[in-house]
Specification:
Elements lengths: L10 E8 L5 E5 L2 E8 L2 H21 L14 E4 L2 H16 L3 H8 L3 H8 L7 H10 L24 H18 L1
Antiparallel strand pairs: 1-2, 1-4, 2-3
Helix pairs in contact: 2-5, 3-4
C-alpha cells in the first residue's frame, strides 16, 4: 500500500466462481495466493474477509509490500475492517521510514511480542496501542466515517387530494365572504 494520497476505505476486488462441488470459490486478483470458498455467495464473501486478513498477515510476516486494491471492475469487493486498515497504514509507515519492529518496540518501551501482536491482522489490538505506535513514528491516527451507499433522495412532498380540496374550499369561502 502506497501512502501519499487521500484514500477511502480499502476494498479489494474478489471473483466468485461456482466450483464443481457446488461451492463458491473465491479468489483475489491482488493476492493470487489467496483463495477460500463458501456454500453460497454470502458465505463466500464472509470467508473472503478472513482470507484477505490472512493473506495480508502473510505479506507482513514476509516483509513484503502489501498491494493496493486494484481498480479491476468486479461485481464484488471485500472491504478491509477498520482495525486492519489502521494496521496496514502502520506497517506501510514503518516500511516507508525503514523502521523495523525492534526499533518501534524500543521507541514505545514494548517487548517484541507486543509489537508482533500489533501488526498481526487477526489480533484485536486496542486503538490506543495503534495511536501510540503512530505517535512514535511522528504520525497521528485519524478515524473517518463514510456512507455505505448514497442516501436515497426523497421526492418532494406532493399535495394530497384532501389538501387540494381543503385549499379550494378555503379559497371558495374567502370569495363568498368577500361578496
Amino acid at each position: 500500500m502506497t501512502s501519499g494520497r487521500k484514500e477511502r476505505s480499502v476494498d479489494y476486488p474478489v471473483t466468485l466462481e461456482r466450483d464443481d462441488n457446488d461451492t463458491i470459490l473465491v479468489s483475489f486478483p491482488d493476492f493470487p495466493e489467496a483463495h477460500t470458498f463458501g456454500t453460497d455467495e454470502a458465505d463466500a464473501l464472509t470467508h473472503a474477509q478472513d482470507a484477505l486478513a490472512t493473506a495480508i498477515d502473510a505479506y507482513i510476516k514476509d516483509k513484503r509490500a502489501v498491494p493496493l486494491p486494484s481498480a479491476v471492475v468486479a461485481k464484488y469487493r471485500v472491504t478491509v475492517p477498520a482495525l486492519i486498515e489502521a494496521k496496514l497504514h502502520l506497517y506501510e509507515t514503518m516500511r516507508t521510514r525503514r523502521i523495523g519492529k525492534a526499533e518501534l518496540g524500543r521507541r514505545l518501551g514494548w517487548h517484541a511480542p507486543q509489537v508482533d501482536r500489533l501488526l498481526a491482522m487477526t489480533h484485536g489490538s486496542k486503538l490506543e496501542q495503534l495511536e501510540s505506535a503512530f505517535g512514535a513514528l511522528g504520525k497521528r491516527l485519524v478515524v473517518g466515517v463514510e456512507d455505505l451507499s448514497p442516501a436515497p433522495r426523497r421526492p418532494a412532498p406532493r399535495a394530497t387530494k384532501r389538501a387540494a380540496i381543503r385549499r379550494r374550499s378555503s379559497q371558495a369561502r374567502s370569495r363568498i365572504g368577500a361578496r
